[in-house]
Design brief:
The complex is a heterodimer of chains A (about 300) and B (about 190). With about 300 residues, chain A is α+β, with helices and mostly antiparallel strands. Helix content of chain A is about 25%, strand content about 25%. Chain A contains 8 helices and 13 strands. In chain A, the strands form 3 sheets. In chain A, strands 1-7-8-11-12-5-4-3 form an 8-stranded antiparallel sheet. A 3-stranded antiparallel sheet of chain A has the order 6-9-10, with helices on one face. In chain A, strands 2-13 form a two-stranded antiparallel sheet. In chain A, a hairpin with a 5-residue loop joins strand 7 and strand 8. In chain A, about 45% of the residues are buried. With about 190 residues, chain B is mainly α. Chain B has a single domain, classed as Rna Polymerase Sigma Factor, Chain: A (Orthogonal Bundle), CATH 1.10.1740.10. Chain B has 9 helices and no strands. In chain B, helix 8 crosses helix 9. The longest helix of chain B is centred in the N-terminal third of the chain and has 23 residues. The chains are: A alpha+beta (about 300), B mainly alpha (about 190).
């Protein structure tokens, strides 16, 4: 190698600090344990019944949440590799932190439509084939629709977590102009009420990707941000952000790469992740590990 | 960077296929450094390189049965890393993070007659110029110089002919020189 630029590139390779010790080995092996990847049997994973894979993935997902604590002396290097920012306490004031009412007006239904979480059997979630007639108006969700219509209008999957059972109502809202799918779950014996009375959880899909970098810039005072890794029902590993604390806004990039800001309607704990070109958002007043358990059970339905 | 003989790699693959996780852990440990360099340059985002490589090794483990007995493990693994990195760098999520974070660099230590000193400023200038290249240019240079792959290994990793690697490398170096001219030229060395 005689060319100066080639020698400089080789020197750059030596200068890049890629010493991560045994951490990568541990993380890869932990992922293999969770995914259940089998190297010894070609095609075995494909042969495994889909439902069984989902169950396995969901069962181990919580165990794979990796807080990734990093010793101080390794902080700089680890930060470069994106493994130290597992917990970020935001101190600056939030630029925009819309506060939603803690209660809903009198038009909130006393009871949710049949097929809601209270009556659903976990693990056998089914989608309503008719539009729900009632929903909390303060969520500004517009008119409810069916899963088939939502999928057809947006081209997005309707997220159905088996851990929550059948949803109470499905909506198509903006932004973006092409629409996003919002699935509403009522509070139940196993799903605590959010700040919006009667609502247990919102699960949304957006076209594009949740913009983690942008979010970190706009997270408000008091918001705790944690970066997580877990396995979803398809067996894929996803990198997610868990937001807890103060109300917050978030952003995603639409299909064209343009940033889109949107409200977090329940102003409560939120889990954000991307999968297969679609951004997912789960809002609910639940703990982190429960949110991961629900997220890992989501089956995208089109 | 530790080089293993093909026989050693083959033995590790055989054991890993048999369910020996420690053997696969040894494969990860052996090739993590070139994998991280490759992912960093291709994705243009050092903050995501770790995640990219982690997922690439998981995919590699699942695909171990497809490794042929006469196949070299190193380019096979790095091809998976390169593909994973190329897919990841399409995400705006990752590009944004890159802009706010520079790669960590070790102190300059010249240890061999072929090695040259590269100052912090020059190294950062090179990283910036690499980041401005097209994905194709960046990928071939990352394979050849950052992951220290031979022309033949690079051809195998990218799924192209040796001659294609040679011509792509020459073009990429020209583009890199042009890019350095726009920003920051590494110091001249005798």
């Amino acid at each position: 190698m005689t060319d100066l630029l080639e020698r400089q590139l080789a020197a750059l390779a030596e200068r890049l600090d890629v010493d991560v010790g045994q951490r990568l080995v541990r993380d890869v092996l932990a992922s293999l344990d969770a995914v259940g990847g089998a190297a010894s049997a070609p095609g075995r994973r494909r042969d495994m019944p889909r439902r069984r894979r989902r169950i396995i993935a969901a069962a181990v997902a919580a165990a794979l949440v990796t807080p990734l604590a990093v010793p101080g002396s390794r902080h700089v290097i680890a930060h470069w590799f994106g493994i130290s920012s597992t917990r970020i306490e935001r101190s600056p004031a939030s630029p925009v932190a819309p506060k939603l009412p803690a209660t809903v007006p009198s038009n909130v239904p006393a009871a949710w439509p049949a097929g809601g979480a209270d009556t659903a059997t976990p693990g056998t979630a089914s989608l309503p084939t008719t539009a729900a007639a009632t929903f909390p108006a303060t969520l500004r969700l517009g008119k409810p629709t069916t899963a088939a219509d939502a999928a057809a209008r947006t081209g997005l999957p309707v997220p159905v977590p088996t851990a929550l059972g059948a949803p109470g109502a499905i909506f198509v809202v903006t932004p973006p102009a092409s629409g996003q799918v919002v699935v509403v779950y009522p509070a139940s014996a196993t799903l605590p009420a959010s700040p919006v009375a009667g609502v247990g959880a919102l699960l949304s899909t957006v076209p594009g990707t949740i913009d983690r970098g942008m979010f970190l810039k706009v997270a408000g005072a008091g918001t705790v941000v944690e970066e997580l890794t877990f396995v979803i029902a398809s067996g894929s590993i996803v990198h997610a952000i868990w937001l807890a604390g103060e109300p917050h806004q978030y952003a995603f990039d639409d299909a064209a790469g343009a940033p889109v800001f949107d409200d977090l309607r329940l102003a409560t704990n939120t889990l954000l992740w991307n999968d297969n070109g679609v951004g997912y958002r789960l809002e609910a007043s639940i703990a982190r590990d429960e949110a991961v358990r629900i997220a890992s059970s989501v089956i995208p339905t089109r | 960077m530790k080089d293993l003989t093909p026989a050693t790699d083959a033995e590790l693959v055989r054991r890993a296929r048999g369910g020996d996780r420690a053997a696969f852990g040894e494969i990860v440990r052996t090739y993590q450094a070139p994998a991280l360099r490759l992912a960093t340059i291709i994705s243009r985002d050092s903050s995501e390189a770790y995640d990219i490589v982690q997922e690439a090794f998981v995919r590699a483990y699942q695909a171990l049965p497809s490794v042929r007995a006469d196949e070299s493990l190193r380019p096979w693994l790095l091809r998976i890393v390169a593909n994973q990195a190329k897919n990841s760098q399409r995400s705006r999520w990752r590009r944004d993070r890159h802009q706010g974070r520079q790669a960590a660099l070790r102190p300059d230590e010249v240890s061999g007659p072929d090695e040259i000193a590269l100052s912090e400023v020059a190294a950062q200038g090179l990283l910036a110029a690499l980041a401005r290249l097209s994905a194709r240019d960046r990928t071939v240079l990352a394979c050849r110089y950052l992951a220290d792959m031979t022309e033949s290994e690079t051809a195998s990793a990218l799924g192209v002919a040796n001659g294609t690697v040679k011509s792509r490398t020459a073009r990429a170096l020209t583009h890199l020189r042009d890019g350095l001219g726009r920003d920051l030229q590494p110091e001249d060395h005798p």
